[in-house]
Amino acid sequence: MLGAGDPVEPPPPLRYRSVAAPTIFFLHKDVAQARIDIVLPRPPQPTGERPRAELLGHVLGGDMSGMAFQEIREARGLAYHAGAHLDLGDRVGDDAALLGSLGTQCDKAGGALELMLDLLRRTELAPDRVAAARLGLLREYAGERITPRSRPGWVQSWLDLGHPGDPRLGAAQTIRTVELAALQAYLAEFAAAPIVSVLGDRRRVDLDRLRALGEVQIVTPAALFPYAR
């Protein structure tokens, strides 16, 4: 812990829910835009996998050129926004996950979710897309500057991840040299049963189409928030 004072206990490691089969939690709200979040969880990953995960995150959804945005929004117009990335947690011992998110019209929720799940399960990556993501990420590393005021926070974040010093030089080298086959093999490891949350208007969301993608469980605000009871 940086600074003076009594050290505090670190928070418990992040853990995701485990499901045996694809599960969709649906919460009704009278809205025009449905919000969809997808989690494909994995156990905690070695610290050395973070550069690969970061590069894959840029391939999937680093910016408007990411695969999720291009395939779902630009090519098919199924969503207002679409993104995906690999999250290995903020501390040693946190669970990892392949994450996806969508904002779409309620009547397009089923189609958008089906396509996103297909993309997240896809293990073949286009070489040109990987090359563009690699170049963009390396440029971010080259242009990144840590300001004096932000240094303590950066150092603490590195320590939380098990790094005794600045890991960016080594990470950049891994990003520069990792091969396409290794990226595809690592992505294939994130093939767990997805956990999906859908916030939308049940009068406009096709629940039968959602049921074709996984077990649908209807939840209520009272089950999620004590103050809603």
UniProtKB/TrEMBL annotation:
Domain of life of the native organism: Bacteria
Domain Peptidase M16 C-terminal residue range list: 10-123
Entries under InterPro entries matching the protein: Metalloenz_LuxS/M16, Peptidase_M16_C
One MF annotation (Gene Ontology) recorded for this entry: metal ion binding
Pfam families tied to this protein: Peptidase_M16_C (PF05193)
Name of this chain's protein: Insulinase family protein
Annotated source species: Nannocystis pusilla
